Amino acid sequence: MAFHYPNGQPYTNNETKPTKKQARQPEATTLFGKRGMTLEEELNDSNQYYRLHATAVVYKKPTPIQIVKVDYPARSQAVIKEAYFKQASTTDYNGIYQGRYVDFEAKETKNKTAFPFRNFHQHQIEHFRACLNQGGICFVIMKFVPLQRLFLYPATELISRWDAQVDGARKSISLSDVIDNGIEIKYQLNPIIPYLDAVDQLLKRSNKGV
Amino acid sequence: MAFHYPNGQPYTNNETKPTKKQARQPEATTLFGKRGMTLEEELNDSNQYYRLHATAVVYKKPTPIQIVKVDYPARSQAVIKEAYFKQASTTDYNGIYQGRYVDFEAKETKNKTAFPFRNFHQHQIEHFRACLNQGGICFVIMKFVPLQRLFLYPATELISRWDAQVDGARKSISLSDVIDNGIEIKYQLNPIIPYLDAVDQLLKRSNKGV
């Protein structure tokens, strides 16, 4: 998979020997995501960085597809001719970070003041509940696109808000709630989304019993 | 997802109140897999059982597909018209079991005396290495179809055999090696493949430093 620095230069895995040109490149002080990359691409990029550096092993799960018709012009080149997108039964990302199971969902909103619950499904909430019950680290990476702000929001908080809205409370999580109970993640050069730093903070917080 | 008892009766989630008919059903003493189920289906079934009983949260990852062409007759019914199977970059199954990250691959062979390495890919071995390095529980569930025997074989052993065959050693793992270094899993009623019992044994073994 080819990926690029925010300045558009292709990434090459020779960190110890940067070319003179790369070394001369000034670091941007503010990064608003890599040009033209979706949140998913930014996370895939970050996960690849974390894997290369043996920090964690996290992948996005493939999109689940219901295959209906396949042609086999040659066995090695089966062509799927009819298939449908299925709703995922779990969250999109999982893996292992220093012995701990991590499980998360990544979501964007165009809203500036709150994160609507319609971005989530009941089965994802139940999946979080089951994983937390087993001792997993579960969260959502929320991006407020108009604000270009990213947060790690703990699944424990999400679940309590979700259960409340089922009982009639507000149908979204306010930005101030996200700021107060989440952990902001600032875009940087590599990994572009350093979400494991936020996970470290989350772990410290839960060790304090907060 | 509908699933069935080995006798073909559909499974209904009312364990506490079995119907009289089900209660009278004698338990089979030997089970050779559910009729007509593939190893994948047996494992999905077992994972569903484990999830329902809050024992573990493990899923098979969806098959990765490269989508080339999608028709949108209506937004809710997008039809994939051209797509191709991609090689998975990881193993097929992962999840969490009592706080521990588990990661495994399930493979069948028609061979009676050995498990050929052609069932594995280099990137799967590297994935195991990376996950073990993070403290994950990694293994293969091997099925010798003609023998109807199932084993959990630790990824640590697999990696050492793989590295040796790259250096010219045998291109398969002998059945006696699998018997000696793996843990046999006997089919049972529910879950049909009780592989977490074998994981418990694996953990005991590694705690003893064997």
From TrEMBL, chains A, B:
<protein>
    <recommendedName>
        <fullName>Holliday junction resolvase RecU</fullName>
        <ecNumber>3.1.21.10</ecNumber>
    </recommendedName>
</protein>
<keyword id="KW-0233">DNA recombination</keyword>
<keyword id="KW-0255">Endonuclease</keyword>
<dbReference type="GO" id="GO:0007059">
    <property type="term" value="P:chromosome segregation"/>
</dbReference>
<feature type="binding site">
    <location>
        <position position="124"/>
    </location>
    <ligand>
        <name>Mg(2+)</name>
    </ligand>
</feature>
<keyword id="KW-0234">DNA repair</keyword>
<keyword id="KW-0460">Magnesium</keyword>
<keyword id="KW-0963">Cytoplasm</keyword>
<feature type="binding site">
    <location>
        <position position="105"/>
    </location>
    <ligand>
        <name>Mg(2+)</name>
    </ligand>
</feature>
<keyword id="KW-0227">DNA damage</keyword>
<feature type="binding site">
    <location>
        <position position="92"/>
    </location>
    <ligand>
        <name>Mg(2+)</name>
    </ligand>
</feature>
<dbReference type="GO" id="GO:0000287">
    <property type="term" value="F:magnesium ion binding"/>
</dbReference>
<dbReference type="InterPro" id="IPR011856">
    <property type="entry name" value="tRNA_endonuc-like_dom_sf"/>
</dbReference>
<dbReference type="GO" id="GO:0006281">
    <property type="term" value="P:DNA repair"/>
</dbReference>
<dbReference type="GO" id="GO:0003676">
    <property type="term" value="F:nucleic acid binding"/>
</dbReference>
<dbReference type="GO" id="GO:0005737">
    <property type="term" value="C:cytoplasm"/>
</dbReference>
<keyword id="KW-0479">Metal-binding</keyword>
<feature type="binding site">
    <location>
        <position position="90"/>
    </location>
    <ligand>
        <name>Mg(2+)</name>
    </ligand>
</feature>
<comment type="function">
    <text>Endonuclease that resolves Holliday junction intermediates in genetic recombination. Cleaves mobile four-strand junctions by introducing symmetrical nicks in paired strands. Promotes annealing of linear ssDNA with homologous dsDNA. Required for DNA repair, homologous recombination and chromosome segregation.</text>
</comment>
<feature type="site" description="Transition state stabilizer">
    <location>
        <position position="107"/>
    </location>
</feature>
<keyword id="KW-0378">Hydrolase</keyword>
<feature type="region of interest" description="Disordered">
    <location>
        <begin position="1"/>
        <end position="26"/>
    </location>
</feature>
<dbReference type="GO" id="GO:0006310">
    <property type="term" value="P:DNA recombination"/>
</dbReference>
<dbReference type="InterPro" id="IPR004612">
    <property type="entry name" value="Resolv_RecU"/>
</dbReference>
<dbReference type="GO" id="GO:0008821">
    <property type="term" value="F:crossover junction DNA endonuclease activity"/>
</dbReference>
<dbReference type="InterPro" id="IPR011335">
    <property type="entry name" value="Restrct_endonuc-II-like"/>
</dbReference>
<comment type="similarity">
    <text>Belongs to the RecU family.</text>
</comment>
<dbReference type="Pfam" id="PF03838">
    <property type="entry name" value="RecU"/>
</dbReference>
<keyword id="KW-0540">Nuclease</keyword>
